[in-house]
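anyone seen this seq b4? input:
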Amino acid sequence: MSTRTTLASLPFRDPRLPVAKRVDDLLSRLTREEKIGFLHQFAPAVKRLGVAAFRTGQEALHGVAWMGAATVFPQAVGLGATWNTDLVRRVGDAVSKEVRAMAAGDDRVGLNVWAPTVNLLRHPLWGRNEEGYSEDPKLTSAIATAYTRGLRGDDPARWRTAPVLKHWLAHNNETDRAVMSVSVRPRVLHEYDLRAFRETVEAGAVAGVMPAYNLVNGRPNHVSPYLREHLRTWTEQDLLVCSDAGAPSNLVDAEHYFDTHEEATAAALLAGVDSFTDHGTDGSRIAARVRGALERGLLTEADLDSAVRRQLSVRVRLGEFDPEGGTHAAAFDTPAHRALAQEAAEQAIVLLKNSDNLLPLPRGARVAVAGPLADECKLDWYSGTLLHRSTPLSGLRERFGADRVEYAEGVDRVLLKTSDGRFVHVPEAAADGAVRGAEGALDPALLTGRTDLPALTVSARGTELSLVDWGEGVLTLRAPDGRYLSVAEDRRVRASADQPGGWVVQETFRLEPHERGHLLRHLGTGHLLHVAADGLKVAADGEEIAGTCGQNAGEVFEVVVVERGEDAVRRAAARADVVVVVAGNDPHINGRETEDRTTLALPAHQERLLRAARAANPDTVLALVSSYPYALDHAEIPALLWTAHGGQAAGTALARVLAGDVSPAGRLPQTWYAGDFDLPALSDYDIIGSRQTYLYFEGTPLFPFGHGLSYASFSYDGLRTRVEDGTVHASCTVANTGGATADEVVQLYGRAVGSPLPRPRRELLAHRRLSLAPGEVARVAFEVPVPAFAFWDVALGRERVAPGAYEILLGASSEDVRLTTTLHLDGEPAAPRPVTTGGLEAADYDEQRGTRLVDRTKTSGDAVTPVDGGTGHLTFWDCDFGPGAAGITVEAAGEGRVECALGDGPVLAALDLSPGTAGPYAYTTVSAPVAVPAGVHEVRLTLRGGIRLARVGFAG
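predicted toks r here
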């Protein structure tokens, strides 16, 4: 019998056996060293068992990313805007088939896909807004569940791909993301951040999660106890937890949470991390750390087995060890995938405003298309390379005819004049069509700029450049052949990039005023441009460059404006029947992974173009193509649309909606605020206390959550509700009263009436997107489990449905409510906290001011401390002291004081930790007499100094 035949007969290769038995068999055959190797992202092959190498982490957020050409679907926030779970499931299905097709010919392509992102879009300035689906946990989980089901495939036994949810947990800031700790109180944790993960995992198509870089309540997410306490309790399946790139090393190097890498690696593995993404493809350092942890007794081989078992479970479910690797559907760039990309792009478009029915555009109209995104099909960091490309300009020319569509990009056309009177010149270079990253890369962050093209020089005539200000003074400069000015590793400036991009964008600049003109700073390196003897370059650190302005001095440029962008737009607008201004963002500039936005404002350059178009032609449509919301004054704009970057079919989709071939039916997946003044700090994660998202926001939004208009009109009628067998049933009829076939998104919200606790103003319970012909009527029915009306009761430490009245609201958005009724739900009455028997956990406060949550220990629990060692306040409602209390005890660490009062009364007891404890985790107890009368009271604690309060107890 051959070795191959013997290996094929091993139990782990028998698809008739249960997954657990196959995993047990393979695990039992691995040596300790082989198990250690499996803990790295790039698990090596075990040739003696015929086990191939395995890689975790194939990016697939809205198509296969980083591996070269693939079908590119709309950004995730655009998929969220469709509110269409069936569509998103089909997108996931197409992506998984392309993963399989690509993996068959390229062993770099992995089957463990890192998608989707279920972080909630709590704050619109988050740089990665494009990656999430919605600010609402219910909508997010519905869309994420649909996408993961498509990625998983429909074979009950074998998974087509293995989706991993990103990023566990409460991750909404790029600023200091690897070192910042955010405070997430229990109610926000359970009612908001955990919920999107939980409902998606419970749906059964998730293979694992990826922890986020940041810390929550003082503890890094990569050692989060919530992985054990919550995630792994939501399903019986083995879930694979994959670290984010470099995060294991961050535990020591950036966060300084552990003293040694052995301790950090052991802690992460014990917390539940199973696969370590660190040091690229080199697994030797993680292996050395694991060996060191084993030698120090920080880990046992049983701990390794737990982690490896979860990886092997995923690999078995993927069919890796089945005969011939199992049979899986695979398809790539099919006509069906192209049609689906267009359908998704169409369904993602949101009509925000349409005064006087300016849209759809009349047949035969002469159209002027203007703006920096009018002839662009932008990609983001998690896009594949385009196989097909459609821009608004090409789409409109195809739809209306090239002779009826005029184009004005609206860029400023400039010459850069040097201090000696010469001009920046772009040498001619052969156009080769090379696109950065087209060949794919395991880590596109390592891709570098081109050095094979000539560097910029200076000449008597110079070259006219296209300048776009993307906001906050960030510029791009483009040569006449369409290539962007960029800086490569040799620090020379070339017209070499097809688009801005890269982990560190090398195509952005800033003009800095100088007494004789402007200095030009390259933002990727942070250095000024110089004119050296051999051309334009930026200085390396410590390098000396002799230039026209002296040794190592940046060149002083005069910006000679050949034509203002507004002038070109104004001319085109005046000749047209209608103007379409296409504005928005470049996904690699001012808001992306590693960079948060600083404002909701539309860039000033684009505002000027919009004003110029509107002044020349009142019939101006603004089409915003962006990864996030803007705040803008739209009073003078008759029609306004928004879409995320829509992938390969974006332009065709926009043109079809503008022409009325498709009625828009996208809905906003997040609130559009009126201005920066409506926003809390980006680091404030307490959506309840700071009244964030449509759930709690009490102001007037620019456009509300769920908003979106149509070319048709719809009426709602016949609301019926009943409560039966633990389920709320709600239904209504919806009729298309317009003249066009169109989709409507029926949205069901709930609200607790008269709650003594802060509860959402309204909360999405369910939704349905349906298509109706003119005059067609449909009855839409929803079933909502009564537990969906629960909140997290901090007094009980669990969810509770409060008995009482609940308002049921049906309508077209969170503010466009058409039908309402009130029903009564039975539930569990509130009860006072029995503080003399149970005490008070500091983190379970009802209200706070001036405090933050921190880690009680490095493995579990929360404590509360004043912000920056100042003074903080905690309030606990309805504390039952029974016959009264005579003593108080606090469990705390650090140094400072705790003062206790009842309501607005005087301080009853003050407890000092002075001198302080030996460290932040060296807790001690301090007691004092106190006279608390019998009954139920509000307890107020004041914390002063660097004290870390874990718990307060009272004795009779």
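The longest helix spans residues 85-105. The radius of gyration is 30 Å. kinda curious what u guys think
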